[in-house]
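[Q] Does anyone have a clean structure-token version of this?
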Amino acid sequence: MRSKLQGVRAGDSDAILADGSFPRRTMRPGFVAAALGVAVVLGLLGFAPRAAAGGAPDAVAGQKTFKANCVMCHGEDGKGTLTGQALKVLDLNSAAVQKLPAAELVKVVTNGKNNMPPFKATLNADQIQGVVAYVRQLGKKK
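[A] Here you go.
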């Protein structure tokens, strides 16, 4: 292997090895920094999820998921629609709901409880986490 590299110095970009191949190039630190910079700029330009005022990005996505799947019973404000009240849904703004650990809320959304159907076949784990984050935001809007 050593004979292949004779006459090739580090940094020779046009060097050819004895067998006619080019030396293996490694990624330069400047390239990595430039790629990272592009990723940051794209994020700032809006190619990353945006946070609502004071909310985490998953709560923003959670609001969309909530509106698509939960509003029929829980209402836009989380206090329950007439249908939801007939099903005895809890007010999502209430202290009883807001004091529940996030893991318990995830479990309820995933598996259902009482008259609430399970959403494990409808929503993925990230969507369920987003809904829980949004429910936490509802509690702050009282």
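[Q] Thanks! Anything notable?
[A] The radius of gyration is 27 Å.
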